[in-house]
Amino acid sequence: MLGEGIIQGLVETARNFFGSYVEKDRLTTVQYPEERHTLPEASRVFPILLYDGDDAAKGLRCVACQICEKECPPRCIHIEKSKDKKPDFVGKQQFYPAVFDIDVAVCMSCQICVEVCPFDAIRMDKVYELSTSDRFGGLLWTKEQLSKPNEYYQKIHPMEAAETDERRVKELAEAQAKAAAAAAKAAQTASPAPGDASGNGASAAAKPATAVHE
Amino acid sequence: MTPLPSPEEIKTLIEAGVPGATVTVIANGSPSAQHSLLLDHEHARAVAEFLRDHAELKLDFCSLVTGVDWPDTETTAKVKVKKLVAGPDGVEQEQEVEETRKTKVPGYLEAVYHLFSMGKKHGPVVLRLRTANRTDGTHLPSLTPVWRSAEFQEREAFDLYGIVFDGHPDLRRILMWDGFVDYPMRKDYVPPEDDILVTGVKA
Amino acid sequence: MDLEPIAGPGELLEVSMGPHHPSTHGVFRMDVRLDGERVVRLKPVFGYLHRNHEKIAEKGAYLAAIPYTDRLDYLCSMTNNWGYVLAVEKLAGIQVPERAEYIRVIVAELTRFQNHAGLVGFLLQDMGASGTPLMYAFREREKVLDLFESLSGARMMCNYMRFGGVRVDCSAEWLDEVRQLVGVLPRFLDEFENLLRANEILMARTQGTGVLPRELAINAGVTGPMLRASGVNYDIRKVDKYGIYDRFKFGVPLGEHGDVYDRYMMRILEMRESVKILEQALRDIPAGPVIDPKVRLRGLRPKVGEAYGRIESPKGELGFFLISDGSGNPYRYRVRPPCMINLTILEDMCLGENIADTVIILGSVDIVLGEVDR
Questions:
Q1: N or C: which end of chain B has fewer CB within 10 A?
Q2: What is the value of ipTM here, to two decimals?
Q3: How far is CA C208 from the centre of its chain?
Q4: Which helix (H) or strand (E) is B51 found in, with range?
Q5: How far apart are CA B192 and CA C154, in angstroms?
Q6: Which of B89-93, B139-143, C6-10 is the least confident region?
């Protein structure tokens, strides 16, 4: 019968229309901005730099190795290495970034910087409401703007952060054990003149920066 | 899926089927082992038609046309040459002198065709065509009359590499705008300095 | 008001359709010459979105090209990733663990489903079914994108696959969510099909419109659902059996007439086959690693040589041709864009048709300008 197909289609439309009042499956929209979806753990927007402790300048994990700068596909990271060094979480003297800028106008949120970072220093943020009226300065994020405490990371990516923290506790324990063994050996060989011999390296390792928060 | 003859066998088939055609097998060192066949310009279209219509090969589907740029290369080799050299006493003597000699290997542009068969479901057979050089001898025979699928892709190779396909029905720029002069995919391409982002920030 | 006739009897009218036209699915232009309402010449003009993707990829490392492939056909980033990593795996001789192969199949079939659903929605929108089918399609697509987000972190620009596997493993909960979705998809497909399949207006409009003959389709290198709508049995999942597609039982739907209606039905039927593959993959997925830890993602330097890898993307044959000179970045990186090559015969399909039908013929080709222009 002519028109049968049209009626058949209208039945489907009616089914969906009335269904949207009772079935959650048929009405998936939310009333943004009053209502929001909770973002999944893996969700990513732009990178942040993590630091341990309370002081961003002191606890910044980044050692300015510049791997992310080199691997970044759109080359939106700009790093300048420091002249001096500061101890990292296991007490080893490392460089730190004097300048660390990310041009988020260029960044394409691909997460490759996070993947290649061997120091767990760079991670992805989940904040997405970032519009600004300043087209140049407002979209160039400096080290200070990028630095976020590890607690923040634990909050936004709980499972990932737990994994990272666990690994870092292990690394710290290993480094401490190694330093203790080295100190003991140094004390043994230098037993005629104790004191000065077990100098800088061991003392730096003995009281590492309080690095890992659990 | 019928097994595809080896590149050497295809070469023999072509040379038997298209008299006068010269085919060179170019080995591919990667684990993919997709070897290719270099054709001469004169018989390229006849070879393409032969491959398309051959009952056993039946390569009716030209999947991909790629332009490749191989710039001029310079090789330096140290050569020992005998030369007359004035000795300390002023008398010329024949001596062996080491000289560095630079040999210029002219580059070329290349068009690579990947052929498959939809009927026999085999492939790829890779054809290559090379231009004489990168400046004035950039002509190649077009294979668009044999496979329509090459039409836009040859236009793209013309647009981005500057390979002129003789016999192409509609050879115009395709991705860049008309009136653009350079070939952006060539290895020695330098982007112009009038980039809006550069000038915009400077001003 | 009296209007001056701009074309007298026997004269032709030249119309530029696009570049900003809602039916062109992006910035795309058709230079159309008309005799009355009938098309006598049609030249597609594109490149408005050209950013020289290939050059960008040649300047970066092998790893750096993966996020750029997301942006080719931005509706199907997962299959784009797969095409590229498959080519690199062929070039460097890399093996992929079993579990990663299954995850790849799952995400690729989900991608095919959401692409086809979206395309059918857009195509029907082009025909005048404003809103309703498109919204239904997008509702289901949204559910797939949610799954992609919880797996890879992004809804569209997934950047998920790596040479030798995938970036992160999927959790058991994620697989359960996919199972749940795959469970309700057949109902959606039934409704979606009933909505317009037998609609008399749609049939009158699409049947016999934009016919693509079988021989021309083969010669012009048309691939994907468009080729199969013309009756050619050529699906790279069956021909190349890349990945683990030889383990699944699924059919390849074929059309008879090669018109717009067949191309529309092809998408609907392929979605059903995708659901079949998903059910099998979700049943059989083994435990194990998802990436070979020996593969060097950073600083990959394949041996000198070349490789062409191709997959059946939702739009057609998506291939990547790579030439390595032994350095850390590809010497030549070439994409075989299925959308662009499927446009080759746009003129042939439109000749003799009405100008209004060029819109649905173009819609049935299924183009994404990010891939056409690269």
A1: C
A2: 0.85
A3: 24
A4: helix B44-53
A5: 35
A6: C6-10
pLDDT tens-digit series, residues A171-182:
888 888 888 888
Q: How far apart are alpha carbons C246 and C254 in whole angstroms?
A: 19
Mean pLDDT of B129-144: 87
Residue A56 has pLDDT above 50, yes or no: yes
Q: For residue C330, list chain A residues with Cβ-Cβ distance below 8 A.
A: none
User: According to the model, what pLDDT value does residue C80 have?
Assistant: 92
What's the token pair of residue C229? 């709508």
Residue among C46, C324, C344 minimizing CB distance to B149: C344
DSSP A26-79: G-----TTTS-PPPPTT---SEEEEESSS-HHHHB------HHHHH-TT--EEE
Kindly tell me the sign of the dihedral angle through the C-alpha atoms of A71, A50, A45, B202: negative
| Binding-face residues of C in 152-211 toward A, CB within 8 A | 152-154, 157, 159, 167-168, 184, 191, 194-203
Query: What tens digit of pLDDT does each residue of B95-111 get?
Result: 777 777 788 888 888 99
Q: Could you tell me the pTM of the whole model?
A: 0.85
CA distance C342 to chain B (A): 8
Tell me the Ramachandran region of residue C224: left when phi exceeds 0, alpha when psi lies from -120 to 50, beta otherwise: left
Residue pointed to by tokens 């341990």: A52
Residues in chain C with pLDDT values less than 70? 1-9
Least confident of A40-44, A51-55, C5-9, C288-292: C5-9
Spatial distance between the Cα atoms of C77 and C83, rounded to a whole number of angstroms: 10
Spell out the domains of chain B, with CATH numbers in brackets: 7-71+108-202 (3.30.460.80), 73-106 (no CATH)
* B34 — pLDDT class (breaks 50, 70, 90): confident
C window 133-152, beta carbon within 8 A of A: 136, 139, 142-143, 146, 149-152
Q: Which residues of A86-115 are buried (b: 16+ CB within 10 A; e: fewer)?
A: ebbbbbeebbbbeebbbebeebbbbbbbbb
Q: Looking at domain C61-339+356-373, which CATH architecture does it have?
A: Orthogonal Bundle (1.10)
Residue extents of the structural domains in chain C: 61-339+356-373
Q: Among C55, C305, C317, whose Cβ lies nearest the Cβ of B63? A: C317
Query: Residue A184 contacts by C-beta under 8 Å, 6 or more apart in sequence?
Result: none
- Which of C96, C306, C343 should we substitute to test contact with B (largest number of B Cβ atoms within 10 Å)? C306
The CATH topology of domain A47-156 is Alpha-Beta Plaits (3.30.70)
Find the length of chain B: 203
